[in-house]
Amino acid sequence: MAVKDLSLFARTVVDGFMTGINKSLNKGAGLEFSQYRSYQPGDDLRWLDWKMYGRSDRYYIRESEVETSISVRFIVDASHSMAHNDSGYTKMDYARHLCATLGYLAHRQGDAIGLYGLTEKGVHVLAARRDPQHLQRFYYQLENLEPGGKFTEPGYYKNIFGASTTRELTVIVTDFYERAGEISALLKELGAYRHELLLFHLVGRNELELDYGNYTSLRDLETGQTISIHAPEMRAAYQERLRERLEMIRHQMLEQGVFYRLLRMDVPVDQALRDLLQQRQKMMR
């Protein structure tokens, strides 16, 4: 997290993670050769057939029967609770680095990536594409996504997420802070489109352990409400309530067919990389 440059961070983490991974992971346009077609501006240059170019002096793209690239849509909760700080960095900091890393991995696999930032005033949309310049736009949008206000109203995202007709993996990054089931409602909406859903639930170590040093009160970032805490007396009851809450969310996601992962902010993103590859390969079967 000390690396602020998202591009550098993503490359460093993914390149290290991929060391030793089977190099035969499916990449590109397909598994079995089907036909050639003329090159069109914007086509991935990796799929040019240079032997055909040598014979005909024209550019051709090698197409395949089985499409192995997908669209990966990243949905990031940008409500004010994502400004929660633990050990000097926020949930939004973690979300940025997490999405940058997963986005770089997806891009490297030949997938289109898109970003949707859920803010109180609306949804910041970067539609999914797979060209090299788009990855830099993806990083730029992540860097400029700041937490603030309450969670997005349903009216802002209605009819946005259901437009795609291609195979799609939707990655949701949130702290699941909700007062009236607003995040649960979004997940039900997404589930109706029958895309593969992968949810990363961010929690701070200080949240899990009710460890805020010498502080004796906490302020709700979204409502401004302040409560007094006496950690030694409250910790056991608090952790039991939190355990029940997390277990309820896990069961709810299981029932809705959502792949759910609880992520502590003090652990590396390696598990998230494995989860993305696992869900992606599941869609290829």
TrEMBL record:
DUF58 domain mapped to chain residues: 35-244
Cross-referenced Pfam families: DUF58
Alphabetical list of SUPFAM superfamilies matching this protein: vWA-like
InterPro entries named among the record's database cross-references: DUF58, vWFA_dom_sf
Gene3D superfamilies per the UniProt record, alphabetical: von Willebrand factor, type A domain
Protein name per Swiss-Prot or TrEMBL: DUF58 domain-containing protein
Organism (species): Chitinophaga parva
